[in-house]
Amino acid sequence: MKPDLFEAPDYYNLDELLTEEHKLVRDAAREWVKRDISPIIEDYAQKAEFPTQIVKGLADIGAFGPYIPEEYGGAGLDQISYGLIMQEIERGDSGVRSTASVQSSLVMYPIWKYGNEAQRQKYLPKLASGEWIGSFGLTEPDHGSNPGGMVTNFKDMGDHYLLNGAKMWISNAPFCQIAVVWAKNEEGRIHGLIVERGMEGFSTPETHNKWSLRASATGELIFDNVKVPKENLLPNKSGLGAPLGCLDSARFGIAWGAIGAAMDCYDTALRYSKERLQFGKPIGQFQLQQKKLAEMITEITKAQLLAWRLGVMRENGTATSAQISMAKRNNVDMAITIAREARQMLGGMGITGEYSIMRHSMNLESVITYEGTHDIHLLITGLDVTGLNAFK
Ligand SMILES: Cc1cc2nc3c(=O)[nH]c(=O)nc-3n(C[C@H](O)[C@H](O)[C@H](O)COP(=O)(O)OP(=O)(O)OC[C@H]3O[C@@H](n4cnc5c(N)ncnc54)[C@H](O)[C@@H]3O)c2cc1C
What we know:
Layout: H1 20-47, H2 55-60, H3 79-92, H4 94-114, H5 117-128, E1 134-137, E2 153-156, E3 160-171, E4 178-184, E5 190-196, E6 202-203, E7 218-229, H6 241-275, E8 277-278, E9 281-282, H7 287-315, H8 321-345, H9 357-367, H10 374-386
Parallel strand pairs: 1-4
Antiparallel strand pairs: 2-3, 3-7, 4-5, 6-7, 8-9
The structure holds flavin-adenine dinucleotide.
């Protein structure tokens, strides 16, 4: 792979909206990605393997629980810092960002928000340091966009719960030490349970043959009469709103992360357009190529503003789920379009692993599908503005 010469676009001087702390956090993440991700990531994506050696580095840059209070091992940062870290990591690779997103927003967040103090003390510091990796089990083979239809269930056996069912498409599953699993009790109410590796009847087979997020491990979570101790139930929130609250946090991170992937594609295409000569001129001198670049930087700038404003609202507690949906949908769509255009600008070289664009492009096919598909987020906006439900 080519050396990482990334220069972040900032067309509207958005740095002026950031605090010194934001910039420090972002720059540390940016340097780490340049040093520890860019040189190795293409190889791991080609091998379809998660680079486990990066876990400590992710913890060191605050990517595991950026906004979780320091007393639990988190970085104690604000929402914009969290977004900036996700942006930088996804600039390197969406799969690596997925690992960090799941750990932070889908595992640490529910334990922090819905767990009791004993659960926080037991799990959060180990997750923040990367000693333990977690996964989040919501999606099932027959229930993706409609998670409320889940069939995974648990029964109260007096001194423990008995968990049965299966989850599919679960990031980090093959090597997670714990899984936050969403299942229905005997009354059909959804609860979160912490399932630990080693519990009898719990297995995590890996999903192979992915053409997307190849450097992120995906798998199933299978529960065959798993005895879950009663103290592993998250006591402070139940119902579908509990997992959806986690998804709000993760989708917010994705809205920022997608900007990183788009920035990397744009920056690569811009540099290439000045170096690659055809018909005796740099291809960047042709109007058609300039149109692509001009549209890319316009869309990136709009997405940056959307994410920043959402960060402010998320920090002051006013961002709605529908507003988060809009940013996730818009920014991922923006990134996938830019990846496609940028790939074309590199001609044949664009399909090789010499450059990052094709990998981003393939990764973004998962990002546009997980955490609510492109269609589902549109329907969320539609419902929000009309008050009419088009889901069913
Ligand atoms: C790489 C990867 C990692 C993932 N990681 C996780 C994870 O860690 N944890 C987890 O729980 N899940 C995870 N997922 C699952 C992901 O969230 C689901 O794939 C996603 O929610 C879509 O569900 P589905 O694949 O079953 O598609 P479906 O729900 O079957 O959707 C198929 C198509 O139908 C459309 N559709 C569905 N319902 C409607 C409707 N009402 N109106 C209009 N169109 C509709 C969808 O938009 C989509 O285009 C991951 C997925 C991938 C690919």
